[in-house]
Amino acid sequence: MSISRRHLLKGIGAGALSAATLTTLGNAMHGFQSANAAEVTDYKALVCIFMLGGCDTHDVLLPYDQASYDSFRNIRASMFGGYNGSRDRNQLLPLSPVNSGDFGGRQFAMPPEMSGLHGLFESGQAAFVANTGPLISPLNRTQWQSGSVPVPKQLFSHNDQQSTWAASAPEGAQFGWGGRFADAAVTSGANTNREFSTITAVGNELFLTGQEVLPYQIGLSGADEINLLSEFDNANISNLLRRHFSATDFNQSNLIGRDVAQIADKSVVLNESYNQAVANLIPLSTQFPQSYLASQLRAIANTIAIRDSLSVRRQVFFAAVGGFDTHSTQAADLPGHLSDVSAAITAFHSAMQELGVGSSVTTFTASDFGRTLAANGDGTDHGWGSHHLVVGGAVQGQRIYGDVPPSEFGHAQDAGSGRMIPTISVEQYASPMGRWFGLNDSELAAALPNLSTFTAANPVQNILV
Question: Which pTM value belongs to this model?
Answer without folding.
Answer: 0.88
